[in-house]
Amino acid sequence: MNHSSSFLSWADHFISYLKYLHYRLKKESLYHKRFMMLQKIMRNQLLDTFFQPIVCLQSGTTIGYEALNRPAPSKWFPSTESFYDFVGQTDQVFLFDYFCRNISLQRFMELSEHLEAREDTLLFINIHPHVLLDSSYHSGETLGLLQDLGIDPGNIVLELTERSAVTDFVQFEQVLSNYRSQGFRIAVDDMGAGYNSLKTLVHLKPEFIKLDKSLTQNIDQNNAQQQMVTLIIEFAKKTMTHVIAEGIERVEDLAYLSYKEVDFGQGYALGKPKKEVMPGKIPDFFQKRKIL
Ligand SMILES: [Ca+2]
Ligand SMILES: [Ca+2]
């Protein structure tokens, strides 16, 4: 190799290295900016809480609401999903979970005064299963906040929502029984998506099973979904568990799921998530169709 070609090869390496450094700096600076934004969101409560009604498919009564927290779209987080993905990469998961839980409870109390049967209304709160398992997390903190706000733990349903695997079921059952003894109820969220398998149902014995939209949407046209949902409904009946079908947007899905005697439903066809606490409704034309 002559001098000029060895210089060229060295220069190539050097340029690649500079490019790599540039890429890393850019990535780190993006992370840093996003992290600062997350801190700002928590500090200044820059988060909207939406309440989506959960409706009894037979009577049309709203039994409760799921609290959904979303940051306003920003340059750093163009979508809610990108925001939650980022939170999951940081060491702020527990803190953020705690922040969301508190803000959901406070806002629900502020906004639900007009409800007729407020004392019977349930509030569904998403919670990361690992938060419950963390030894430094004390259930007493949530209880204390509920007491301050005048909420009975019996009105709170904890949705175990993260699509990550629960592996230590023995420990988890103990933690959940502690919560239940305080009055909380448990829902297994996104059933049919990710890791929430039938095994989870057997071990966690939830009071509610929330069927993921991947099982409920277009169910009238999909035999495999119908078989799976039928199986879960039968299991639920035998174990005295309530089923909530999520993602109901089409009247055909609503018709199929109420025909199969699914207890409750959630989705745009019954009520969109709103910044106010507004009861949902079975569409009028659907009610009429049922009578005819
Ligand atoms: Ca949920
Ligand atoms: Ca869900």
TrEMBL record:
<protein>
    <submittedName>
        <fullName>EAL domain-containing protein (Putative c-di-GMP-specific phosphodiesterase class I)</fullName>
    </submittedName>
</protein>
<feature type="domain" description="EAL">
    <location>
        <begin position="31"/>
        <end position="287"/>
    </location>
</feature>
<dbReference type="InterPro" id="IPR035919">
    <property type="entry name" value="EAL_sf"/>
</dbReference>
<dbReference type="Pfam" id="PF00563">
    <property type="entry name" value="EAL"/>
</dbReference>
<dbReference type="InterPro" id="IPR050706">
    <property type="entry name" value="Cyclic-di-GMP_PDE-like"/>
</dbReference>
<dbReference type="InterPro" id="IPR001633">
    <property type="entry name" value="EAL_dom"/>
</dbReference>
